[in-house]
Amino acid sequence: MTQETAVRPRKVSTATGPAAFVQAIRVRQWHKNALVLAPLLPAGDALRDADLRGVALAFSAFCLVSSSIYLINDAKDVEADRAHPVKRYRPIASGRLSVRTAVATAVLFALGGFTLGLLDGWPLTLTLAIYYGIQLAYCFGMKHEPVLEMVSVASGFLLRALAGGVAAGLPLSQWFLLTTAFGSLFMAAGKRYGEARMGERTGAKVRRVVERYTTTYLRFVWTLSATVVVVTYALWAFEVGEQTGSVWPQVSLVPFTMAILRFAIDVDAGTAEEPEVIVLHDRVLLGLGLVWALTLALAVYL
């Protein structure tokens, strides 16, 4: 097996025209922006007063600004991507989309995203600005700095959840935010652990920043993060239980913890580079997620 085939897990797209554009803005990554809906889950009776229009604006705005960041990142790294066995197939690196078009589109998408933010108000716009600033810093150097790059990635998920609460006009529990933050760090460390393990197993080239981590250090990070996630979720569950007088928040802790432990099997095996793929193909994990969602619904709406 050659190095190239070892690091190319799926068939790459060589589509041109509109299909190349859609690939470049990474529409398939927009599902991450659904995290703006997360504050609605524990809202309970407050959901009746939530500004759902604001949540829709937040979701759309994050789709635009995140795509803007993807375009800027790929335009900046075009030469390095052309030397990479997988990234060379990206639309900009392969020449299917010009750097000039990518940059122009990135500017338009950013302006569109901030315009949507302004339609909701300054709190959402400020959240978008912080997200965009951190991600720009990531593109222009932070992604090469250990720890800082993981934290910047995790912050993107935290800011999405925060934006959802701000846009909906809902108060956010500190424990809920910490669960989101360390859950994102758990995923980020797991992905890098998988990449590092893949490099060790196959001898394939990994990113420069991943080379600066040891697998033992990454194991420490994702273990610590998973622990904090379970603890903060438990604190949130007991907080909601006290507010509602329901036992279901505490019950939801069981499938939640089991799902974390189940997913950790793949993280520990070094195969968690694409968490969404793992979730969609693991029936037990999907089942635990369904049970968790049901108990959470009973916890806040029964």
At a glance:
The chain has 302 residues and is mostly helical. 71% of the residues lie in helices and 0% in strands.
How are the secondary structure elements laid out?
Layout: H1 3-6, H2 18-24, H3 52-76, H4 78-82, H5 99-120, H6 122-139, H7 148-168, H8 174-202, H9 208-211, H10 215-244, H11 248-269, H12 275-281, H13 283-301
Overview of the structural elements:
The protein has 302 residues and is mostly helical. The chain has 2 domains: 157 residues, Orthogonal Bundle (Tetracycline Repressor, domain 2); 130 residues. It is 71% helix and 0% strand. It is built from 13 helices and no strands. Helix 3 packs antiparallel against helix 5, helix 7 packs antiparallel against helix 8 and helix 8 packs antiparallel against helix 10. The longest helix is centred in the last third of the chain and has 30 residues. It is globular, with a radius of gyration of 20 Å. The N terminus is likely disordered.
Characteristic terms for this protein:
302 residues; mainly alpha; Tetracycline Repressor, domain 2; 2 domains; 71% helix; disordered N terminus
Q: Please state the average pLDDT score.
A: 87
Give the strand content. under 5%
Kindly identify the CATH topology of the largest domain: Tetracycline Repressor, domain 2
Tell me roughly what share of residues is in helical segments: over 70%
Please give the CATH architecture of the largest domain.
Orthogonal Bundle
